[in-house]
Specification:
The chain has helices at residues 58-62, 127-130, 172-179, 227-231, 255-268, 295-310, 326-343, 382-389, 396-409, 411-418, 467-493; strands at residues 7-13, 46-50, 65-67, 87-91, 95-98, 104-108, 114-118, 149-156, 162-165, 197-203, 206-212, 239-245, 284-290, 314-317, 365-371, 374-380, 425-428, 435-438. It has 501 residues and is α/β, with parallel strands linked by helices. The protein has three domains: 1-156, GTP1/OBG domain (Spo0b-associated Gtp-binding Protein, Chain: A, Distorted Sandwich); 162-350, P-loop containing nucleotide triphosphate hydrolases (Rossmann fold, 3-Layer(aba) Sandwich), CATH 3.40.50; 365-459, 2-Layer Sandwich (GMP Synthetase, Chain A, domain 3), CATH 3.30.300. The strands form four sheets. It has a six-stranded mixed β-sheet, sandwiched between helices. It has a five-stranded mixed β-sheet with strand order 3-1-8-5-6. A four-stranded mixed β-sheet has the order 15-16-17-18. The protein starts with 6 loop residues before the first strand and ends in an 8-residue tail after the last helix. Residues 2-159 form the Obg domain. Its cofactor is Mg(2+). Residues 60-82, 455-481 are annotated as: Disordered. Belongs to the TRAFAC class OBG-HflX-like GTPase superfamily. OBG GTPase family.
């Protein structure tokens, strides 16, 4: 049991995006050669991928905290930061990904199937990417976004066609061992089987998988014994086989009572509706009366067979030890499996992500809230929230750039419509980690005289002097210097430069 784990809770964090860099190109005779800051790299994703060689979740039981690498920051010289590598976690086929609340995110079935459970943050833009005709030399860059952080539950639900169910020590492991090449542990004490055992059974030209799962006791649907761990592995099975011990010596035990107890537990357990499963009590069920090699057991089996058939069950009397009745049982199960496969409706949407990423993040809304600190206005939307996360609030120019972006998006107009006035408290971001502003409407009067944010007046001059203008300016400079020398000589001759007595 230490090597098999079928349920784990994972704490996952995708990589953060690398920060962009603000850099200016410098070389000889070009002290201000323009912006050349590179972009930050994207953070790595956390991906769950089905691998046929993986049969258990034990690796994640011992290490539930996993993080993807961060993206590297950009550098000068238009060098972009490297992207963080994706973190791929390999899981068995049949793994169901859910939230802690039970919402199904993905049903991973089939080798190579994968699901991005946490996405890495975007890298921040460098000042080279932020430059434009109006903003020629940005003195700031955007920060990288944090990666998604989430907590998910992985549950392994065995993929088999036939499930052998019954009380402990009813002979389920023995049936799997003689009908297939599987070699489960077999002993004469209860709960010998602690993990599901799979075997491939061939009956004529048909092949199907048979699962021997942990034994059932009264109250299993409520979690007693190995209850839920057992019932989880029969959710995907087409045919349920009741293996009943006809040679038990326990008081109060007989085939009819055992079957009644097991049927009650199946009726109480409800498979997950989003996985397309039908109630266990409505599936094809076959009764196998085992241990017929014992004379008293065979006599009891022959006695109860008519009663079980009257209840609508298909009954087989077998002996796993003496290999009696196994061939007929194999062909009967193969026929049921073939019919169930033909009638099965493949529900493809059940295996895709049910939490799609928004394709259009341009929308936003302004919500007016009354809190203990007074009235506030909350801006809700993916794009404003992302812009706030990318802003370096220690850089005034970056803050001004954020204000321009929000204004162009129409945030200020919506704030005015919602009743905000100068000095109102505005919140942008998640409920528990929002950025708080004291809102001041944009003042355009006179601001145009200072130039646009991020501009450099030294780069605004577009004209260059001609060669004749340069020569004329040089001669004017030399003439002014000659006149200054002549004035100094005249002052010296007039005695203004003589030393006092």
């Amino acid at each position: 049991m230490a090597n098999f784990v079928d349920r784990v809770v994972l704490h996952l964090r995708a990589g953060n995006g690398g920060h962009g860099v603000a850099s200016v190109h410098r070389e000889k005779f070009k002290p201000l050669g323009g912006p050349d800051g590179g972009n930050g790299g994207r953070g790595g994703d956390v991906i769950l991928r089905v691998d046929a060689q993986v049969t258990t979740l034990v690796d994640y039981h011992h290490g539930p905290h996993r993080s993807a690498p961060n993206g590297k920051p950009g550098e000068g010289g238009e060098r972009h930061g490297a992207q963080g590598e994706d973190l791929t976690l390999f899981v068995p086929s049949g793994t169901v990904v859910t939230t802690r609340a039970g919402e199904v995110l993905a049903d991973l079935v089939g080798d190579g199937t994968e699901y991005v459970v946490a996405r890495g943050g975007r890298g921040g833009l460098g000042n080279k990417a932020l430059a434009s005709t109006r903003r020629k030399a940005p003195g700031f860059a955007l920060l990288g976004e944090p990666g998604e952080e989430t907590e998910v539950v992985l549950e392994l639900k065995t993929l088999a066609d036939v499930a052998l169910i019954g009380f402990p020590s009813a002979g389920k492991s023995s049936l799997v061992s003689v009908m297939s090449a599987a070699k489960p542990k077999i002993a004469d004490y209860p709960f010998t089987t602690l993990v599901p055992n799979l075997g491939v059974v061939t009956a004529g030209g048909n092949r199907f998988t048979m699962a021997d799962v942990p034994g059932l006791i009264p109250g299993a649907s409520e979690g007693k014994g190995l209850g839920l761990q057992f019932l989880r592995h029969v959710e995907r099975c087409h045919v349920l086989v009741h293996v009943i011990d006809c040679a038990t010596l326990e008081p109060g035990r007989d085939p009819l009572t055992d079957l009644e107890v097991i049927e009650h537990e199946l009726a109480e357990y409800v498979p997950h509706g989003q996985l397309g499963g039908i109630p266990l009590a409505e599936r094809v069920r076959v009764v196998v009366l085992n241990k017929a090699d014992v004379p008293e057991a065979r006599e009891l089996a022959e006695m109860v067979r008519p009663d079980l058939q009257e209840q609508g069950y298909e009954v087989h009397i077998v002996s796993a030890v003496a290999h009696q009745g196994l061939k007929d049982l194999g062909y009967a199960l193969a026929a049921h499996v073939r019919k169930a496969r033909e009638e099965q409706i493949v529900v493809e949407p059940a295996r895709v992500i049910v939490r799609p990423q928004a394709l259009d993040d341009q929308g936003f809304r302004v919500v007016r809230e009354n809190t203990s600190d007074g009235e506030v206005f909350r801006v809700v939307g993916e794009r404003p929230t992302r812009w706030v996360r990318q802003t370096d609030f220690a850089n005034d120019e970056a803050v001004g750039y954020l204000a321009d972006r929000l204004n162009r998006l129409g945030v200020e107009d919506e704030l005015l419509k919602a009743g905000a006035v100068a000095g109102s408290t505005v919140l942008i971001g998640p409920q528990d980690d929002a950025v708080v502003f004291d809102w001041e409407p944009t003042m355009a009067g006179g601001a145009e005289l200072l130039g646009s944010r991020g501009s450099d007046l030294r780069l605004d001059e577009r004209t260059r002097p001609t060669r004749g203008e340069k020569r004329e300016a040089f001669h004017d400079k030399m003439s002014a210097a000659e006149r200054a020398r002549q004035e100094l000589v005249a002052e010296r001759r007039a005695g203004k430069w003589t030393e006092p007595e």
